[in-house]
Amino acid sequence: MKVERLLQISVAVLAALGAMLLGGGETDDAALPIAAVAAAFISVYVTDIQRWFSLNRNLANIAALLAVAFSISDFWPGDSTQKLQAIAKLLIYLQIVLLFQRKSTRVYWHLCVLSLLQVVVAAALNLNVSFGFMLVAYMFAALTTLSLFFIYRETVRVDPVLKAEHDAIDNRPVFALFGGRDELVDNGEEGGEAVVLQSRLPKNLATVFSSWQMFVQVCRLGFVTLIATVVVFYAFPRPSRDQWGGRFAGGLRETGFKDQISFDRMGRIMQSDEMVMRVAFRSPVTDAPRESPIEPYFRGTVLNRYQIQTSSWITTYSPDDEGAIELPTPPPGQEMVRQVVVLNPRTRLVQTAHGHLLFSVYPAYRDRLTSSEIIDDRMAGFLSYATPDVLGAKPSQYNVLIPWRPAEMENRLLAVVSRGKDKNKLDYRTREYLNTLDDIEVFAFGQLQQTTRQVIADAKIDPKNDLEIAETLERFFTDEGEFSYTLEIDPRVRDPNLDPLEDFVVNHRSGHCEYYAGALALMLRYQQIPSRIVVGYKGGEYNSVGGYFAVKQMHAHAWVEAYIKHEDLPESLRDNYPVGAWLRLDPTPSGETDAVYEEDDGLLSKTLDWFDYLELMWRDYVVEMNSERQENAIYKPFTDRIWRPLGGWFNYEEWRQWVKDQAAKIGVDIEGEWFSWYMSLLTIFCTIAGFGIYHLGRFLVRRFGVPFWRWVRRQLHFNRHGVTFYLQLERRLAKRGMRRKPGQTPHEFVDSLRERLTPVAMDAIAPIVETYYRVRFGGAMLSEEALAGIDERMLILQTELDQIDRAPRF
């Protein structure tokens, strides 16, 4: 196959990969990259091979200007992401225009540059692991294309006939859009030979392209480039990556974490699969994964006040220095598990009085691996990452210890901490906080109050037991079957004269988790039970390969915590909660927010788990490899495991002590007299033994090593395509003072040796030099017999040279 045809195919592959990289990004039009991929391969057949259709250079320039004008309309009004998408579209338009032109070095070069620009834009839009795999394929395609382009350009440059034919491509008539194989020649006669680039190479280069040698060389260069890229990427300091603006500029609401709940907005809520974090539970001793038997609740913030005027739950509690403390150490005798949280860089963390709000199973404790910047607000019950100001950097990963409590009831309870002297009584600050959690207008929500009283009366429970009341009201939403979960908030079924939560309970009884949690909290407060809403995430998609929960925005959830007095708790648990506990209540009907935590050993499930795990590795060690993570993941382990142990080898004191210890074992006291006959004799003996071992090894290498290496070289076909044998010839002659002068050819060098060498030696050298010329400039490939013949002539030459050295000199 001609080099030009190979180049055309390679450029088409490169253009298709560039378009696919853009298609894998966050573009809003996937049809355009697909069209670019199709155009790349269609143009090879239609324009390059059959020549049925091609654009003239002038008309191609006009089409390019129209593409620029068309793209400007998408560029100016948008945000930064939309501007990048407009640039991506423009690059694809220009690429399609170039693909359907007759190819010259100018067109090939423009296509390569456009493809590289597509990679640059795709890197800003695409953060998936698929980008990494395609980028490796793009690198190999680019190396192949550049190699072919260089050969093609040099062939055209040195051949005047081909250069004239090449230049004629850009000088076609302005309106010649269609052209078949038979085109008008310069004399205007039809039927002449079409202008076809023949780009034929010399015999030696043609042999290279007709074999697999070029493919092997490109693969070698690609792997070396890949290794060098990895080394440079991780060795050089990495700055923090700037984040683009919001992904969704407007339109429909989407599921996700919010630091307040508002019920005044109607309409449809879309489920978002944007990744929030990956959470793994591991043993703090063995670091082995632990599978939670209970669906985890990842706590975010706490909402403690309902505003009737705005129909929204908000938080009004501002933690002060007394309420927020550093994470405590775990209590003795309780089993712990390490919770490792890896945040998605796009995850927005809410600001607290101390820094960034963190998500975690609660309560949390610390060990030696836990960051000291994590602050625990024990009163409100949430974690913060302490920063000096609201613009401080958020953590990319953090870990805390959490209690491992598989029992269902115990898992739902959270101890209330009393900071007074008497741990069996609530301190004044805690009582004041609890009083704010049952504060509600008595005359508001009359129908909701009536429904609450009716539910408790129908249940026939102890009206003074807060635990029974709380669980009864929870079952009212989950067990009756009269409530339904929906993300479609239809304003037509809403009563505008009622509060949204009262209307939800009394009338339509359909809504999402925020409605259920908000209504239950109000009903508990009407029974004088302190309650609050917790918003965070529930469960996630469990990855069996990586052993972690993939928590997405669709897993955002809201639930209720009710304060249960000590005397109302189950008798078996009262000793663990001397001042009462918070009881987690989840009134949302089951089946709507459950985590995907099923054991599925199917091939598709395992493949998806592996891909998600690779996505995690890609984000952790490539996309988000900033200076902090580079220090913890690369530099520090390298220093601890490699450099510090090696540093001991250069410690003078340790070596001095080792020598003293070894000498003491054989009865020599180095700290004693400065001269020792015993040590002197031992030194002389070791020196003689060392010389003996050296000469013995040299003899064995000459006697057996050299023949063995020659045999291995023949078996592995060493130097079949190289000229190392000639370099060995020059080295042997140089040892006898016969060196080739600068500018002297091998033939001239051999002719200058006739007076110094014997005829037998010259007869041995001449075939070696001729073979060198055939391999070096003729592209010849040596057979096994030819390699053996060269070795025999080398032995004859060595024998003659040894005789010259032994000849008497006068």
TrEMBL record:
Keywords for this protein: Acyltransferase, Membrane, Transferase, Transmembrane, Transmembrane helix
The superkingdom listed in its UniProt entry is: Bacteria
Q: Which InterPro entries match?
A: Bact_TGase-like (IPR052901), Papain-like_cys_pep_sf (IPR038765), TgpA-like_C (IPR025403), TgpA_N (IPR021878), Transglutaminase-like (IPR002931)
Q: What is its EC number?
A: 2.3.2.13
Q: What would you give as a GO molecular function for this chain, any one? A: protein-glutamine gamma-glutamyltransferase activity
Residue ranges of every copy of the Transglutaminase-like domain listed in the record = 505-589
The UniProt transmembrane annotation reads 7-24, 30-47, 59-78, 84-100, 107-125, 131-152, 218-236, 674-694
Quick check: keyword Transferase in the entry? yes
Q: Name one Pfam family in it.
A: DUF4129
**Which PANTHER family does this one have?**
PROTEIN-GLUTAMINE GAMMA-GLUTAMYLTRANSFERASE
Q: What is this protein called?
A: Protein-glutamine gamma-glutamyltransferase
